[in-house]
Amino acid sequence: MDVLLTGGAGFIGSAVARRLVGAGHRVRVLDALLPAVHPSGRPPGLPDGVEFRHGDVRDRTTVEQALHGMEAVCHQAAMVGLGLDLDDAPDYVGCNDLGTAVLLAAMARAEVSQLVLAGSMVVYGEGRYTCAEHGAVAPGPRRTVDLDAGRFEPPCPRCGAPLAPDLVDEDAMLDPRNVYAASKVAQEQLSSAWARAAGGRVTVLRYHNVYGPGMPRDTPYAGVASIFRSAVARGEAPRVFEDGGQRRDFVHVADVAEANLAALEALRGRDPGSVRCYNVGSGSVHTIGEMAAALAAAGGGRAPVVTGQYRLGDVRHITADSGRLRAELAWSPSVSFADGMADFAHAPLRGV
Known about the structure:
Blueprint: E1 2-6, H1 11-22, E2 26-31, E3 51-54, H2 60-67, E4 72-75, H3 89-110, E5 114-120, E6 128-131, E7 135-137, H4 144-148, E8 164-166, H5 179-198, E9 201-207, E10 209-211, H6 224-233, E11 239-240, E12 247-252, H7 253-266, E13 274-280, E14 285-287, H8 288-298, E15 305-306, H9 323-329, H10 337-344
Parallel strand pairs: 1-2, 1-4, 2-3, 4-5, 5-9, 9-13, 10-12, 11-15
Antiparallel strand pairs: 6-7, 6-8, 12-14
Helix pairs in contact: 1-7, 2-3, 3-5, 6-8, 8-10
């Protein structure tokens, strides 16, 4: 299959490129080489046979030219992370939502009807919680007064009792709680509208916390794994926010690339106008504190320091139920938390 891979020079995108080429697909990469991810302004090494085009998905002419002769699109291009503050909002909306809209319009004109969209678990906001008295509940935004006092766990919105976190599935209500999350919801909705109007087929892969070799270095837009990994490399103790008890699902980039391959190859069998969402997680729940400790131990670094600091845009717990992806696309993760962190502790980071 001839595949246009947007953002294919990035951390996840380059891993997807390698996997698609390895499976025999012909890949054309379109990447803007944003400075936050590519400080050198040069693309990383891509597999032999990959055609690279430097360009922005927000530019209509560039996208139309990149789509020529393609059968499917794997859309990884996005600005990621929580960022600095609301001054970043125009960049998130521009890169993620306008870029997706330009791409989808061009796909409709070119009659390219197959799309794999890189989504994110951030669309769920806080994850799934259960109250002993009221059952499944959706906690409201965490309050500054509670966070300042070190009360990090969201209480039941009805009785104030402690809640038990649980896995969230793809049918959960979307509840974006920061600008990045809102832009990822918009990407999904734009893709759904395109599928209905153009008879397209869409698979959305909602990534959980992706880590692995080639992550960007510790910028405000990087994931927590690369921030901790960079601290270990500098001989510093990883600084863990809140109390370190935030639950996450850390999934290796190689497994995410495999999910993209499975999603792409299943698109042809889908009905026109259809959209299907999948969580992409390891199925193994760990806290951020555990991840920091595993990296520090594997890298021979200093033990993590729990700071009690917080960011208002962060959620407390969000972990995936990836059963749908396993059942429908025969995907399963191959890299364990222990093995993945041991390898990542010594893996090179991009821009370091």
